[in-house]
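>> received
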Amino acid sequence: MTAAGTRPAAGTCPAAGTCPAAGTRPAAAAARRRRAALRAMEADTGLPHRTWWTPYLFLAPGLAMVLLFSIWPFVNTVVLSFTDARILRGGGFVGLDNYRRAFADPDFWVATGNSVLYLLVVVPCLVLLPLALAVLVHAKVPGIGFFRSAFYTPVIASAVVVGLIWQWVLRSDGLVNTVFQRLRLVSEPVPFLTDSTMLLVSAMIVTVWKGLGYYMVFYLAALGNVPASLHEAAAIDGAGPVRRFLSITVPQVKSMMLLVGTLSAISALRVFTEIYILGGESGGPGGGARTLPFLIRQVGLGFSGETGYASAISILLFLLTLVFSLLGRRLAKGDEA
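>> returned
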């Protein structure tokens, strides 16, 4: 028995079954604090507290779009690549036959070679030329805003419109051949659009011309983060513009160069519009300028389109793109290290 008005000793209970469980009081206090914080938040914002799944309601429309237009088509393409499906009928499971057919198809290797060649030529141009252009227009001189807008104009122009303009410029009686012949530089029109190799080179020129302004904006953002004090100190030490460019500008924007290289590589492997507009539906004479996206379209469309085989080529293109993307990521990690 305890005396009246005295407290029970520590570790004892006044009556059996009345002791709270260990940790109950701290947990209850934390719950009270949490409820108080929620009431304070509701009082400040005027909004009632929502449950844990409320944020996912805002994400649901975007997630549904990604699921419907990205994830599901990709999964369906993978499934179709193992079938002999066609446009107007379903197909049965054929295993790896479509992939074996692709590796034995000369047209597939021609298209793959053109896509890889396109990447090897276009990517260095789109990494270096926009950087040089960005350095030129980065200078704060009167009227430079006009040149920035002018260089970016091809980016906002439709790819079809750009292709038609260049088709008019490069055809046999077009602007370039007319000037060359008037200057007596050539005796016959240069076959920009009638020779497979020249057609591929012409498409590369169009891709580079259209991408210059786009990637220039990337580099302008990176150049804005380069401290001006570095250039000032180098200038005081006697470094010229070229030396400052190589020793300061390039190291400071190297991560952006890797990003531009990765993005331009993915775009180069997906090129289609330039080849189609300049070379027509056949992809140049004998289809010699076809790229992988062009071949996928030719194989998969039409009343006799082979959806299964086109899906297999699409998966191979995806794997090729993934290889170059992982290579760019590896280079970026090495640069950070």
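>> Residues 196 and 286 are 8 Å apart (CA to CA).
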